[in-house]
Every structure is written in structure tokens, then in C-alpha cells.
Write a structure and sequence with these properties.
CATH architecture of the largest domain: 2-Layer Sandwich
Structural class: alpha/beta
Radius of gyration: 20 Å
Number of strands: 10
Distance between the termini: 18 Å
Bound molecules: 5'-O-[(R)-(carboxyoxy)(hydroxy)phosphoryl]adenosine, zinc ion
Order of helices and strands: EEEHHEHEHEEEHHHHEHEH
Number of domains: 2
Number of helices: 10
CATH superfamily of the largest domain: ATPase, nucleotide binding domain
Strand content: 15-25%
Length: 336
């Protein structure tokens, strides 16, 4: 229930949960005024993945220039509130954004709005589509794979989650073993275009919770296939392995999500998170949902981490009276 709705409310939001330092201004939850993302991918690439301490240090260096750039054309007087990602993510990385946002909100005497990163990913759909709750969301990112009932803008119920690796993690680890750079999902997507699904890969069964996922067995199967092929003195066909893995992940996600939508009576399905940029997964969902479900996909540029999605969710949180107190902290893990 909304406590109040404000018109032309401009929220400046900050996101620093992983390896992107980002700031954005969004009006009334849906209209992006500015959106700045400074990625550290090139720095972490040399290590094959994100190094938490290096990420925190770079957030520290980048946050002021990124926020200043997001404010270009606007003054602090134009901003009605500050939003910030407080969980989940790398703790040292989150603390940079939270501390900065706290200082800014205090200095400007503006409300500070806490935003859960996963809720932010869901809100990325509000930036480029007319999607409104209720709907069933599938969040697929580097750290999470969640099926979530979104009954209202601030009301969620998680009905499935991964027991081990996230879908993005499975892509990244397999990609690394194939010799692709970080972040591997992007390179698997490209390689799969020229590949065929020739490698048989398992679809792990998860005992108990019907809508939970497990990707660690699939990851191990890819690593074992690569290893065994090399042992035999043969060469792995990276394009074919990329296509096989992408198809398998896609089948698993579609199977569970569509079954969950049927079980919980949702006619609308929405994808969000970095992995939802995958062209094979997008196409496969489009085909599977045709004539059965209305499918919403975020624009590819809003799938990965950004602050516009945080500003969007901050608007709905604020409208529902969710405002941080002065003791707001950061948390590495958190339920949605
Ligand atoms: O949402 P995100 O940017 O950060 C987290 O919150 O984790 O997701 C990052 C993940 C990485 O695992 C990356 O490999 C994956 O999203 N990813 C992709 C694609 N683009 C990014 N995975 C598959 N295909 C893509 N095109
Ligand atoms: Zn994310």
C-alpha cells in the first residue's frame, strides 16, 4: 500500500555491490535522467574473476567522479532523495556505497532509501517496459538464481533458489575452463552462436523443493568433459561446448520457471539479472512462453549492474515508507 505518491520525484541512487561503480538519477521510478556505470571488468579480467579488496579500493576511487558525472545538468536541489544498494554483495564494496550515500543524504538533509540489489534487478524491468506487479520473476545473475513472486512493488515471495552455484557462476567457471576471459557468460553467448549442441550434459535433479536449482553438477560435468577430452589428446570444440552449456542452462531455467508460473497461477513472467542478457536464453524463453505467458525482458543494457534500477526500486520503497535510519549497514547476504 502506498503511503503517498510524489510527482516528478527525482532520486539519485548509488550501486557498488560488486565490480561496477554506478550512479543514476531516475524520475518517478521509470524515467532515466542520467545513468553512469564505471566497470572494473578490465581490472579484474587479469585475475580471472572479481578480487573483493581490489573492487572496494576502486569503488573508493571512482565513487565521487561517478556521482559527479551522474549529477551533470542537475543540482543537489533537484534531488529529492538518495537511494543506495545495501545488500547483498561484496561487503567491502557495499560499504563504500552505503557510507558515501549516508554522508550525502546527511549533508543534504534528504531521505536515504535502502535498496536490496535483487529487488533492484527486478526494477530494471520498470525502466524499459510497462511491467507492473503482479508477475513471476526469474533473477539470474552472477551470485543468484531465484524464482520470485512479485505481488506488489515491495512485496516478494521467493519460491525457488539455487542450492549451490548460480547460473552466472556456472557460465563463468565453464568459460574460464574453456579459456575465455572474465566475465565468461558474455563469451559463451558469442561462442554459442557458431556452435552445435553436441556435448551431452546433465540436468541435475534437486530433491525436496521442486523449484530450487542446482548448477554445481552441471559445472563439474563441463569441467570433466574438458579434462577428459584433453587427456585423450583431443581438442575440445569451444563453440559446441558453449552451445551445449547454454542450451542446458536455458532448458533448466525454462522448465522450472514455467512450471512455477503454472503452479502459482501467473500469466506474466519477467527475467532480470546479468544472465538475462544471454541471447540464447532470451530466444528460448520467447519461444517457450509464446501463446502461454506474457514475457518481459529487460533491455540488454539494463540487465547488468547499474544504479538506474536501484533508483527505480528506491522510488517504490520510498512510496511505501521504506526509509533508512542513521544506523543503516551493509550486508553480504540477504533475503530478497
Ligand atoms: O547481474 P550481474 O551483472 O551481477 C550480479 O549481480 O551478479 O550478473 C553478472 C553475471 C556474470 O556471471 C556474467 O557472466 C553474466 O551475468 N552474464 C551473462 C551474459 N552477460 C552477463 N551470462 C550469459 N550470457 C550473457 N550474455
Ligand atoms: Zn547484479
Amino acid at each position: 500500500m502506498f503511503l503517498f505518491e510524489s510527482e516528478n520525484m527525482k532520486i539519485l541512487a548509488i550501486e557498488s555491490s560488486c565490480d561496477e561503480t554506478a550512479a543514476a538519477i531516475v524520475e518517478d521510478g521509470r524515467k532515466i535522467l542520467t545513468n553512469v556505470v564505471s566497470s572494473q571488468i578490465d581490472i579484474h579480467k587479469q585475475y580471472g574473476g572479481v578480487v573483493p579488496e581490489i573492487a572496494s579500493r576502486h569503488h573508493c576511487e571512482n565513487i565521487l567522479p561517478v556521482v559527479s558525472q551522474a549529477l551533470e545538468g542537475y543540482s543537489f536541489e533537484d534531488i529529492d532523495a538518495i537511494g543506495v544498494t545495501y545488500a547483498p554483495g561484496l561487503i567491502g564494496a557495499l560499504l563504500v556505497g552505503v557510507s558515501f550515500a549516508k554522508g550525502l543524504a546527511t549533508a543534504l538533509s534528504k531521505p536515504l532509501i535502502p535498496v536490496n540489489h535483487l529487488q533492484g534487478h527486478i526494477a530494471s524491468l520498470y525502466l524499459s517496459t510497462d511491467l507492473k506487479p503482479p508477475f513471476l520473476a526469474l533473477i539470474i545473475s552472477g551470485g543468484h538464481t531465484h524464482i520470485v513472486e512479485v505481488s506488489d512493488y515491495t512485496k516478494y515471495n521467493v519460491i525457488g533458489r539455487t542450492r549451490d552455484d548460480a547460473a552466472g557462476e556456472c557460465f563463468d567457471k565453464a568459460a574460464r575452463a574453456l579459456g575465455f576471459p572474465y566475465p565468461g557468460g558474455v563469451y559463451i553467448d558469442k561462442a554459442a552462436v557458431s556452435g552445435k549442441c553436441t556435448y551431452p550434459l546433465p540436468k541435475p535433479k534437486v530433491e525436496g523443493q521442486e523449484f530450487d536449482f542446482s548448477f554445481s553438477g552441471l559445472k563439474t560435468a563441463v569441467l570433466n568433459t574438458i579434462h577428459n577430452t584433453k587427456q585423450r589428446g583431443e581438442e575440445i570444440n569451444s563453440n559446441d561446448m558453449a552451445a551445449s552449456l547454454q542450451q542446458t542452462i536455458s532448458d533448466i531455467l525454462i522448465d522450472k520457471t514455467l512450471k512455477a508460473a503454472e503452479r502459482y497461477n501467473y500469466k506474466t513472467i519477467a527475467l532480470a539479472g546479468g544472465v538475462s542478457a544471454n541471447s540464447g536464453i532470451r530466444k528460448a524463453f520467447e519461444n517457450a512462453c509464446e501463446n502461454r505467458f506474457k514475457l518481459y525482458l529487460p533491455e540488454k543494457k539494463y540487465c547488468g549492474d547499474n544504479a538506474a534500477m536501484i533508483a527505480s526500486q528506491a522510488y517504490y520503497n520510498f512510496s511505501d515508507g521504506i526509509i533508512a535510519t542513521s544506523d543503516l549497514n551493509a550486508y553480504a547476504t540477504s533475503n530478497i
